[in-house]
Amino acid sequence: MSPRPNRVTPTGEVAAIALRGAWMGNRGILHADAGHIVRHHVGSLWIICELSFRGWRARQWEPHHYTPLFFHDEAVALAAGHRPCALCRREAYQGFRTAVAETEGSTAVLTAKALDGRLHSERLVPRTSRQNPHRLAWGDLPDGAFMMLDQAPNLLWRNRIIPWTVEGYAAARPAPHGGEVDVLTPPTTLAALRGGYRPQVDPAATC
């Protein structure tokens, strides 16, 4: 059976690839019928969910129901602009918000609405569905961030650059110590990573 277009890449694209997902999520009703994606997103609520929660699993391609999406690992989901769900991933959601506040020196965490609004303004070029990379120095990147190198997404993990492909992670190489790079992971999510939030990363990237 051919893969359905319900996998999300680090660039935020919803694609038909065979790579299995460690997480589920959504960004609204994207499909018109089974396997037919007609829009990139609906609204600013983009979340990362458990594959099942309290014995319940979302049904794919339900009419008038959100489109379940799948992510290779959490670092990919974060790069695409999603954040932990406040319901099925309450502890991760709280940890994400707390890490942002600590990095930014704030005494109060962002509300869900404020967090979603910030992420939405950061992840897309205004009035488009195109991801909005931003330029940063290599030394400013935390572990778990994704960037574009050689026109492909790469993960920074344990001082190594690990290319991401539709078949999984490829061979790693040492990260450079100088220069700048186009970063995919939104600035607010980078703040969470700098503040100690540790995303789940596929074991293939840690070998």
What distance lies between the first and last C-alpha atoms, to the nearest angstrom?
A: 31 Å
Share of helical residues = 10-25%
Task: Indicate the structural class.
Answer: alpha+beta
Spans of 5+ residues with little confidence (pLDDT < 50)? none
Which overall shape is indicated by the principal axes computed on the Cα atoms? globular
Q: Please provide the count of β strands.
A: 15
For the biggest sheet, the summary is: 7 strands, antiparallel
Q: What radius of gyration results from the CA coordinates?
A: 16 Å
By DSSP (H or I, 4+ residues per run), the number of helices equals 4
Mean pLDDT across every amino acid position: 94
Question: What is the string of SSEs from the N terminus onward?
Answer: EEEEEEEHEHHEEEEEEEH
Strand percentage, roughly? 15-25%
Structure characteristics:
7-stranded antiparallel sheet; 6-stranded mixed sheet; single chain; alpha+beta; 207 residues; 20% helix; globular; 4 helices
Quick structural summary:
The protein is an alpha+beta fold and 207 residues long. The chain is 20% helix and 24% strand.
Give an account of the 3D structure.
The protein has 207 residues and is of the alpha+beta class. It contains four helices and 15 strands. Helix content is 20%, strand content 24%. Strands 9, 10, 11, 12, 13, 14 and 15 form a seven-stranded antiparallel sheet that branches. The longest helix has 15 residues, at 90-104.
